[in-house]
Design brief:
Elements: E1 5-8, H1 23-34, E2 40-42, E3 47-52, E4 59-64, H2 71-81, E5 89-95, E6 103-106, H3 115-124, E7 130-135, H4 143-154, H5 163-183, H6 185-193
Parallel strand pairs: 1-4, 1-5, 5-7
Antiparallel strand pairs: 2-3, 3-4, 6-7
Helix pairs in contact: 1-5, 2-3, 5-6
Length: 207
C-alpha cells in the first residue's frame, strides 16, 4: 500500500486526554514527536493535523476532533482534501480484546464493535483500508463484569505501572508505521502482529 494518511482515533479535550480510548491519538502524537512535528487545528477537516517527511515520504497525521462516533466525517474530509483514497489510509484504534503489549495490523475487516471504525467504514463506504489495533486490556474476563465496567475502563487512564509498557508499545507502533511505509503491509504485519511485550519488561524486550 502507498501510505499517505494516518488517522489516530480518540476523543478531544482534556477530559479524555491520556485515556485508554485515546490510544490512537497517542500513537500519532508519538509519530509527530519523533519528527518534531506540530499538530495544528484544521477546521475544514474537523481535525488536528501534522505532517512528517517530504515528497513521496510525506505522511499526514490526523486527529479527528469530532468525537469517536463521528470520526469518519473527518477522515473522509481529509482523504478528499488531499486527493487520497482508502488505499492510502491507516486508522489506529484501541482494542479491549487485546492485552496491553499486543498489536494487530490488518488490511481490511469489520469494525469489530469499535464505534470509530464503524464510523470510518460508513463514511468511506468500504471495509478495505488498513487498521492497527492497539491493545488496552479488558477490565475482566468475566462477561458480566466486563460489560458493566467497559465504559469506565476505556475512559479511564493507564495506571502508573502500565505507563512504561505503554511507552514501549507506542515506540513499536512508530517503528511499525515506518516499516509499513518502506516495506509494505506484509512486512509490517509480520513485525507487529507477532509482537509480545511482557509486563515489567526492559525497554526493547519483545517476544
Amino acid at each position: 500500500m502507498d501510505l499517505r494518511l494516518v488517522a489516530g482515533l480518540g476523543n478531544p479535550g482534556p477530559r479524555y486526554a491520556g485515556t485508554r480510548h485515546n490510544a490512537g491519538f497517542m500513537a500519532v502524537e508519538a509519530l509527530a514527536s519523533g519528527s518534531q512535528a506540530t499538530f495544528r487545528n484544521q477546521t475544514r477537516l474537523k481535525a488536528r493535523l501534522a505532517e512528517i517527511g517530504w515528497g513521496e515520504q510525506r505522511l499526514r497525521l490526523l486527529m479527528p476532533q469530532t468525537y469517536m462516533n463521528a470520526c469518519g466525517v473527518s477522515i473522509r474530509a481529509a482523504l478528499d482534501w488531499f486527493n487520497l483514497g482508502p488505499e492510502n489510509l491507516l486508522v489506529i484504534v484501541d482494542d479491549m480484546d487485546l492485552p496491553l503489549g499486543r498489536l494487530r495490523l490488518r488490511g481490511e475487516g469489520s469494525d469489530g464493535g469499535h464505534r470509530g471504525l464503524r464510523s470510518a467504514i460508513a463514511h468511506l463506504d468500504t471495509r478495505t483500508f488498513a487498521r492497527l489495533r492497539v491493545g488496552i486490556g479488558a477490565p475482566s474476563q468475566d462477561p458480566a463484569v466486563r460489560k458493566a465496567a467497559t465504559v469506565r475502563h476505556v475512559l479511564g487512564r493507564f495506571s502508573p505501572g502500565e505507563n512504561p509498557l505503554l511507552h514501549q508499545v507506542l515506540n513499536e507502533v512508530v517503528q511499525g508505521i515506518h516499516l509499513l511505509q518502506g516495506q509494505g503491509l506484509g512486512a509490517a504485519m509480520n513485525a507487529l502482529n507477532g509482537l509480545r511485550i511482557p509486563a515489567n519488561s526492559t525497554p526493547g524486550a519483545t517476544h
